[in-house]
Amino acid sequence: MADVRVAVFGASGYSGEELLRILVKHSRVEIRAITSRQYAGQAVASVFPRFAETGLQFVFPDVDAIAPGLDIAFLSLPHGLASEYARPLLDKGVKVVDISADFRLRDPSVYERYYKGSHPAPELLPEAVYGLPEIYRDQLRQARLVACAGCYPTSIIIPLAPLLAADLIETEGIVACSMSGVSGAGRKVDLPYIFPECNESVRPYGVSGHRHLPEIEQELTAAAGERVVRMNFIPHLAPMSRGIHSTVIARAKAGPGEGPFVDVWRQCYGDEPFIRILPPGELADTKHVAYSNMAEVGIRCDPHTGNVVISSAIDNLTKCASGQAVQCMNVLCGLPETAALDILG
Amino acid sequence: MADVRVAVFGASGYSGEELLRILVKHSRVEIRAITSRQYAGQAVASVFPRFAETGLQFVFPDVDAIAPGLDIAFLSLPHGLASEYARPLLDKGVKVVDISADFRLRDPSVYERYYKGSHPAPELLPEAVYGLPEIYRDQLRQARLVACAGCYPTSIIIPLAPLLAADLIETEGIVACSMSGVSGAGRKVDLPYIFPECNESVRPYGVSGHRHLPEIEQELTAAAGERVVRMNFIPHLAPMSRGIHSTVIARAKAGPGEGPFVDVWRQCYGDEPFIRILPPGELADTKHVAYSNMAEVGIRCDPHTGNVVISSAIDNLTKCASGQAVQCMNVLCGLPETAALDILG
Amino acid sequence: MADVRVAVFGASGYSGEELLRILVKHSRVEIRAITSRQYAGQAVASVFPRFAETGLQFVFPDVDAIAPGLDIAFLSLPHGLASEYARPLLDKGVKVVDISADFRLRDPSVYERYYKGSHPAPELLPEAVYGLPEIYRDQLRQARLVACAGCYPTSIIIPLAPLLAADLIETEGIVACSMSGVSGAGRKVDLPYIFPECNESVRPYGVSGHRHLPEIEQELTAAAGERVVRMNFIPHLAPMSRGIHSTVIARAKAGPGEGPFVDVWRQCYGDEPFIRILPPGELADTKHVAYSNMAEVGIRCDPHTGNVVISSAIDNLTKCASGQAVQCMNVLCGLPETAALDILG
Amino acid sequence: MADVRVAVFGASGYSGEELLRILVKHSRVEIRAITSRQYAGQAVASVFPRFAETGLQFVFPDVDAIAPGLDIAFLSLPHGLASEYARPLLDKGVKVVDISADFRLRDPSVYERYYKGSHPAPELLPEAVYGLPEIYRDQLRQARLVACAGCYPTSIIIPLAPLLAADLIETEGIVACSMSGVSGAGRKVDLPYIFPECNESVRPYGVSGHRHLPEIEQELTAAAGERVVRMNFIPHLAPMSRGIHSTVIARAKAGPGEGPFVDVWRQCYGDEPFIRILPPGELADTKHVAYSNMAEVGIRCDPHTGNVVISSAIDNLTKCASGQAVQCMNVLCGLPETAALDILG
Description:
The structure is a homotetramer.
Chain A: E1 4-9, H1 14-23, E2 29-35, H2 44-47, E3 58-59, H3 63-66, E4 72-75, H4 81-91, E5 95-98, H5 108-115, E6 129-131, H6 133-142, E7 145-148, H7 151-165, E8 175-180, H8 195-198, E9 203-204, H9 212-223, E10 232-237, E11 244-251, H10 259-269, E12 275-277, E13 295-302, E14 307-314, H11 318-332
Parallel strand pairs in A: 1-2, 1-4, 2-3, 4-5, 5-7, 6-7, 8-10, 12-13
Antiparallel strand pairs in A: 8-11, 9-10, 11-14, 13-14
């Protein structure tokens, strides 16, 4: 008998597919419902052939019908829409793990500025816990509403938070150059994402004012003990399907050498099952984490400038999205944190 | 009758292939010899099938046999080796366009530090002209020895030099994140470059002390009127065949808005046939310059931090290497600068 | 002064872009108009940044305004729509080079079966010349209306037609497995063509009844002296941007060895500027023809089965589409056939 | 306590990496040794960073030291070398699961012809069981020596064997066009496999006399009740990392329609956990099986020619190699056949 009964709201995108890929082999989970307005009534396999053997079906997202007896609802919906489901689900006693951006920013006015619209459920913000277990594990154990960390933020917060907390890098002048695979845009049918537009192409986008910027700064500022972190975040699209690589440049306050930085990572993350700390001087590679829930982090000092170069690699659909959502659920439900996630990529 | 008789020394790599691709359709050029120790005696088409129709053959790199009557020798050889050919060729009255790194650094002690060995021909350094026609056109007209600019340097110097010269950005704290296609490593048979190691992989390398760093700093310092530029240069390997994208972050001394920066580019480069200045706020894409000799440059201000984000895209085999070498030759020989290069990619 | 004044109808797709890329550097051509309903009034560079330097603009496709003084109209339009423009253009004395499929099939009832609709201009079919210069050069010289060969057909007809004409292979039992890059689907914004759906994916499609099948059979039957060729044609989508590779298996009527087959190719194509005949036993590679107007063909006998394996590689946007269209125009207008096409890829 | 103690001989290639990826999460398996001559004494993570968390080390392949107490030895070694280890391991009571080609061909003279050398251990051939559990499950239960099926053979035998056994297709005139990702060549450092040589490239190779041909024909002939199957097998290299797609064309003896063919597949494979039978008329896609042990098969009739087009997709490192090896071990050792393989890709 399963310990946890779950539903996935909005499962026809890549995050939804990845979430199902993990949940169907989670031995402690029973999938009660998978919703899709567009595909309701069809087999999940009609959209994602890999699920042919599961017999799973899409149903219409009817909260009243789905909520009874449910423990956890994953929301893999567009921002804005997720909030509309969170309220009634919580009211019916269902805990919510939201993969959208709706509950990540604590200040609704920041949400309004970056997401171009008033926040749909500001009253829920105070209780939302940011879904990054390596940092918020204790709060997650008690949470009713989890706001899973975004993909770029995960790749940047994990390596930087401990270094800022330990005061090893300056809060000023941080630059992050991130490169994302195309699935990071979702299963979006739009000209910039067709194969001939992406192949052999590297290009920055959203250079000033990307929606993940306030989320990153909020969390880094918290890590730095409320010293304000204001940074330059530059996402790029790279010709690959999966993976995010972030290269972060910061001014070192420790050193010489990578030792003090790696030591802090080891203290904070030494027992973390999903963080791989590379040997001093080695840097991360997206290929090492593909299809896994691992975050790989490395650091190299640049004595020429006095900077440190921090490099992280994460699978944008797993650790940055669906894998992390399951990790949060495992914490929330008191299951082993690595359950269904112990794949080596 | 051809105006210019040329030889290509070391033509079995990707730069050599690209050089031949351009030279065979250059109506003012006669190719006298194409050398390869490894393939001497074989048809060029046995290595590069696209040249089947040309009937070209590789010959042994015998300077005595090749030099008589020759106007220009292109050296597409490993660093160190190029210098050995430059001396005897110059002595026999042949002008040399060197694609290697041997004559790019003015200070031989810097060469020694970065290339791990004493400079093979320091006496030639004073007369070497840096092969970036947009900046050194006048000197190139009189040159006997051209040191073609490196690939990463071209992508960074072109957008930054005018902004430093006009004092629009700080010389301190510049960060450059560059992403190169795999052909940038040459036609190198080595584990990191096989397809399954590169595909779905983004990774930084050579983070402190890449050989192109002193070359970039030398030229940017010159552009800045000898105010020293010391920067953080972080190259990455991206899963594509061709192309370099550089994202450069610098502190703005002008603004608000991109106007003043783009204006300076337009003043400097408005008539340049191989520089495309994007509208203010738009950024570059490697796919726009593939197989062409164009450099695409764009800029976006980030009011959040007071930085500017500069983006450039170049085909690493053309504008950054062989195309630029031919452009230099055209200047050197008084031919139209765009001859054989007027392809739109 | 230009010899030929041309207009391009429907230039916002990949074939249109490639056509412009070739025409803008054709020294004997003046581009009078480039049409696009969607982008009329905008710079071509707003869609394809590589044309920023040309200053070209899209205009509305108004035949009355564009036809006067025009020599050639290229139609790079969807099938069905092309016919609507052909009639009025021909009436105004403009010769038409059509890249769509509208005039390729001689029998309008076959068109109806495969294109699901009655032929929009059957009265023009008798005078349409199939646009494959290597086979229809003489007829093209007099043509008013050219129906450029399709991409898969070009890759299959070029190697097979001479072998069937010389009776070296059986007309029965031919199988063609073709693999196309994604640009072959056009600049189409549809789920199957976004990057994560194409990358790491090889898949057949249109296995029975692809629209190019009757075109291939029509031309091979003609080549075989009206002995009916009925074949199995299986297109696949491969994770690349450009290129078509066709592997054709047929029963040999000659041999042993590749000699007789290659001899026939050499007789037919030995002087063709755009056909590369590989040495006996060697097979084609899409990478050898990228960005060029070349068709590469090779053959290998399989003594184990008595079959021959024929392999061809073509750039689907150049030799299979826009390059071939310009080649046809060159023939039509009495210009050197290789004008503006003499690029080695 | 683990049920099965295993060693992996030769684990520094892609098959070895994939094998470890599966074995480390197999709850019933204890990995006793991982050998590599080249890397003995180093951490496995030094070659494959994803194993950093396992602490595994490479050791020298010393059979005497490794065999005691061992149940199963996986041989992930080059052909020829595998046999040298098989003999002493069997002598010491260790069962052998060989991923190389050494024991696949029953007739040593065929081995000699295709592998250019006399068979190194012909006396072991009679007891070797062909490692394709869907067909040889009963024999595998008793086996001491398993010759795991090759990658192309797996993709072709699975769909064809039942159709030949049921006499639904002709044994004559079968053509198989297969496309493989580059990891199929192994972790081989050779010019044809570097990224710029593979990207944007589709090319056939080994067209007559590929080593997998006799293996395929041996098994299809067996399936056909010893009616000889002689076929044309044409492998291609495609620009992807993982995956094999095979398109097989055969003359139908049943029909009309796909029904009878799919019915036979359902009878044979309806309960197989690793075979996905697509609905009639749908064809396979490598992307659906990436990183999984699934074989996806589909069929489409071509009434135009009377042929059937059969399509299969398999991950060349999993179902075609390491996944299948573990599946064989599970059968051999009486473990659940899906243990450690129940990943959905």
